[in-house]
Structure prediction request, 269 residues.
Amino acid sequence: MWKHLEPGSSPVDWCEGNYLISPLIAEFVNTFSNVLFFLLPPLLMHLFREYGRFVNPAIHVIWILLMVVGMSSAYFHATLSLIGQLLDELAILWVFMAAFSMFFPRRFFPYCFQNDRKLFSMATVVLAILATGLAVLHPAANAFALMTLGVPAFFLLIHELKRCRCSRVYRLGIRCAAIWLLAVTCWINDRLFCDAWSAINFPYLHAFWHVFIFISSYTACVLFAYFSVKDEQPDQTPILKYWPRDNFELGIPYVTIRCYSKSDSNHQI
Prediction:
């Protein structure tokens, strides 16, 4: 057990050179590139206060888990320990499964769940527990296994965007999909083509992965939160807004709730 806490005990080592900047931090840039995981979730909890009050308070679990992902990732890249690797990967797994149980459309539920989201969520928790056990048994394969989870989420997002009639939501969805593809490109290049990037003294693509995957992940959660209200609570009207200015679409997106009887400004854009 203790040897798994030792620095360098993980079989995974990313492209950035180890202990080049600080003798205490293995991958300095990869460690501090997780800063967005700490800065934005508290703001998102504030922005989603109406969503949590009127729709689903569990939305805040997503933002808390994203902070856990950031802390776990920073610890892993600072130590390159096996425990750090497992904490990082399991945190990603659980945030994905939490979002899956919360936002997966009911119309795609298998018949055995009888359209019951609580039953579906319980099954998701059981699946996450089993996947956690497998991740501990085979840590070397975890990174590639987790990457595959993004593929069905990507195509589900595209499917939901095709059904969306709000141009503002559609634009955000396209940006989210593009940033996800950019993040995956960075991850693959850092993982498989490290020698080429090291040759030009730029072994930092994994740090860009952290930035891009956070942006695409929280944006996807914002979009699916919007879609969930549209599908399951027709008496509520979700409004996509941006912070700090609503007319600046490169700001931080969030969803607020307005009474169904009022007009939805999104449909006017």
The longest strand covers residues 236-243. Residues 260-265 have pLDDT under 50 and may be disordered. Residues 39 and 67 are 9 Å apart (CA to CA). The beta strands are 236-243, 252-259.
